[in-house]
Amino acid sequence: MKIVVDAYGGDNAPAAIVAGAVDAMKADDGIIIVFTGKEIEIKELIKKENFSEADRYAIINADEIITNDEVPTAAVRSKLNSSLVVGLDYLKKEQSAAGFVSAGSTGAVLTGATLRVGRIENVARPALAPLLPRMDGKSVLLIDCGANVDCRPEMLLQFGIMGGAYMNALGVDKPRIALLNNGAESKKGNELTKAAFELLSASDLNFVGNTEAREIMSGNADVVVADGFVGNVALKACEGTALMILKMLKESVLNGGLTAKIGGMLIKKSLSGLKSKLDFNEQGGALFVGVNKVVVKAHGSSKRSAIKAAILQADGLAKAGLVEKISASLKN
Amino acid sequence: MKIVVDAYGGDNAPAAIVAGAVDAMKADDGIIIVFTGKEIEIKELIKKENFSEADRYAIINADEIITNDEVPTAAVRSKLNSSLVVGLDYLKKEQSAAGFVSAGSTGAVLTGATLRVGRIENVARPALAPLLPRMDGKSVLLIDCGANVDCRPEMLLQFGIMGGAYMNALGVDKPRIALLNNGAESKKGNELTKAAFELLSASDLNFVGNTEAREIMSGNADVVVADGFVGNVALKACEGTALMILKMLKESVLNGGLTAKIGGMLIKKSLSGLKSKLDFNEQGGALFVGVNKVVVKAHGSSKRSAIKAAILQADGLAKAGLVEKISASLKN
Question: What is the second-level CATH architecture of the domain A1-123+290-332?
Fold first, then answer.
């Protein structure tokens, strides 16, 4: 599949982006990369990676860069020669282009994808949906995580439908859809979630009811639906706690005297396995669900391994016919 | 100080509640406990604890129990002889009663305290506010965590004022107040947080701007303001992640072969220190801020140590003149 990569988005761009893309091509013979960004620099970086299969990639020159400090709508509208907009335009225009990956400004990627690539028919609002690690080793989709900070109940229903189609494309049969709420009981919630509960209950989805934030990663659901503000808070609270604990653990071992230090050395391998299980980056990026092609937003701090994972993810979702599946799910 | 204790609220009531209260009396000579609940059973439990200072406690008989399954408003209105309502009525009536602790149904405690004890003058809505552990070893107050699931901007401003007065009573000079938001930039937010940001900025508070959920426990703020729905999600997401990681850590050590197992044994002490640092229970209960006396809601799963901590907390806050401080802060 042909994946378009914004080489100038993210904290570690362009070096980590290009390196991650080369790793993805090495990992999968079927992947073709179209880079957008400063052509000469990208060429240099590919050369550094000792990748010589020139027919596996192309570079479209784009001199401008959209940063995190810019207002997304204005930036996408004015910087038509940015690596982001050039990439999205190519994605829209070229039928063979199956997916897009950027680690750039979330707002700009979402606005850009909506404006330049367009929504799937019947989609009210595309949503940002990352996969989170679950205790059983599988993943749970949290949708929406920030694209829509003020939602109506019907939007939450549609997030459930799209999220279900996504997990189905990943091979999950009859995905269990839960609603993120302030209690597990069916009567719980604020105005929004109470109304969304009714809509989800009346739908054809495999709706399993409300879930509390402490159960998101428990394995009780395959898709957790939330408005973008709440989903964003939940995601970042999980990330922040995970980082804090791993740091405190390290400190408590280091300050625990010789016994603890030796113990720490002995469990180092187990710990690093745990760390990679918990690393939200290793799960690839967050999919922008509801636009007309596969658009993956990688974390701004993505290193080469995360970019590689995001590209493989985009490729897999395109192969699984994600856009067609979502489109079909909204026609029922 | 005289603290009223609902002996029949919580998963481990009445045994753990009575035992925790006895521990609190043993820990602080100045504490007098008024238990509410089944008198004969409570007497038996105190006897079991070998506590013979009969002038340090009293028991007010109350035969009914309010459970988690009941609709809070209906339960508080109909079960006038429940341990909860009898306790709250005593708290209101008796000037010498300085505080109240219950591990019972959150909804019933909040509704009961509002209806039977009443709000401080000028308080629009009391809020539930737990202290969370911070990376620097201190605590951060998250207000509101579930009392008000649909909020107006002015309510968030008032949560900031009350939260500031709370932390001030705990000895924090000019507490730093932050607004929980979906990004740190000042323009970020949904309709509610954008409007609340303006109000907080224009106030006399030491408002330090927006904070993302991943920064709640970072130490950047002493008070984090949120609407009750969002605060509840953030709190439970932190709790759930902490529990999951500690469980995964244990499993990864157990499944990591002999080396990891020996390592695990060597760091056991450091780990249990970390666990107690992260134990949200050990921080005491959540204060119900804005009612006319100190009301502490302990976690439903509280064991005796958590009940003891919650009673010491209620005693400390009453001594610090919390209600008077909040009252004064709302008159400015």
Answer: 3-Layer(aba) Sandwich (3.40)
